[in-house]
Specification:
By secondary structure, the chain is of the alpha+beta class. The chain is 62% helix and 17% strand. α4 crosses α5 and α5 runs antiparallel to α6. It is elongated, with a radius of gyration of 33 Å. It starts with a strand and ends with a helix.
């Protein structure tokens, strides 16, 4: 599915994109066009490849989920007449999942390509765009870009709330029970935290490059720049939270270690008591044996 959006006075017009010729006509009276892609079929993928300058390999890699995966989807590159930004957001279901969204910046066009987890994000930005137009304010492609960047950071922050709840749950369970299962859970959480920390760091660096105009084709205006700055500040706060979560898990590990030490001490005390009892039994048996031997000798002496 491919949608295209453009401003028409105070309204946001939208239509399905099925042919490239439609794109030129659709955006002829607007300074910008926003093309949004979601789960394109083979025919739509060919259209996207043509739109990007016959980028069949790139389109195939994005569809297969392998583009830029070594860098956790976070980065940018200049290709043909556009700049491609790729950045992920975190989702915490049963496991940590990372979902990328790709943004192509052209001179008068912005193209977004997300996965099945992105529609809510896109709808949020569309609502902001409509509100902006209704107020008679003329937005541009950087309005769209800056809001998408900020909403991606918002999704990360929401995921961190879920992570905090999991850590609190593990901490509560640690006071009640401990063992290998709790230890495994803590190390899994620390592994997730490490991945999230790296992702946030890379994302912050990318947004700083956007803000400092170090990325080709991106020159934020005075309205978009503060939005990106807010997103960077949110990432800084999230990084502090992640560090505190990691320290919290270290505290849980200390409790688990203390619990293990106490269990070992209890086992040693129990074994010591058993050893003392067994020793007393052996002494009693030995005394009984000696008494029996002495009694037997006494009887023999009588005869």
């Amino acid at each position: 599915m491919i949608w295209m959006y453009a401003a028409s006075g105070k309204k946001l017009k939208a239509a399905d994109l099925t042919k490239l010729a439609e794109l030129d006509e659709f955006g002829s009276k607007s300074d910008w066009v926003w093309v949004d892609i979601l789960k394109p079929d083979d025919k739509e993928s060919e259209l996207v490849a043509t739109l990007l300058g016959d980028e069949k390999t790139l389109v195939s890699d994005v569809k297969d989920g392998v583009y830029n995966i070594l860098h956790m989807y976070t980065g940018y590159e200049k290709r043909h007449d556009y700049t491609l930004l790729s950045l992920p957001f975190v989702d915490l279901g049963k496991e940590l999942e990372i979902h990328p969204i790709f943004i192509f910046i052209k001179e008068k066009m912005i193209i977004t390509w997300g996965c099945e987890h992105c529609p809510t994000l896109i709808k949020t930005v569309l609502r902001m765009l409509k509100d902006h137009l209704n107020e008679g304010i003329k937005p541009n492609k950087y309005f769209i870009l800056s809001r998408i960047l900020r909403e991606v950071v918002v999704l990360d922050s929401k995921a961190l709330v879920s992570l905090r709840e999991r850590i609190d749950k593990v901490a509560g369970e640690t006071h009640e029970k401990s063992g290998k299962k709790a230890l495994h859970t803590v190390f899994e959480l620390k592994k997730q935290i490490s991945s999230i920390h790296r992702l946030l760091y890379l994302k912050r660096r990318l947004l700083c490059d956007v803000k400092e105009e170090m990325i080709p084709n991106i020159r934020l205006d005075e309205e978009a720049k503060p939005v990106v700055e807010d997103a960077i500040n949110d990432i800084d706060q999230d990084l502090e939270f992640v560090d505190s979560y990691d320290r919290g898990l270290d505290g849980i590990l200390s409790l688990l270690n203390l619990g293990s030490i106490h269990r070992v001490e209890a086992s040693i005390n129990f074994l010591t008591i058993i050893l003392v009892i067994l020793t007393l039994i052996l002494v009693a048996l030995e005394l009984a044996a000696r008494f029996g031997e002495h009694a037997a000798l006494s009887l023999l002496g009588l005869f």
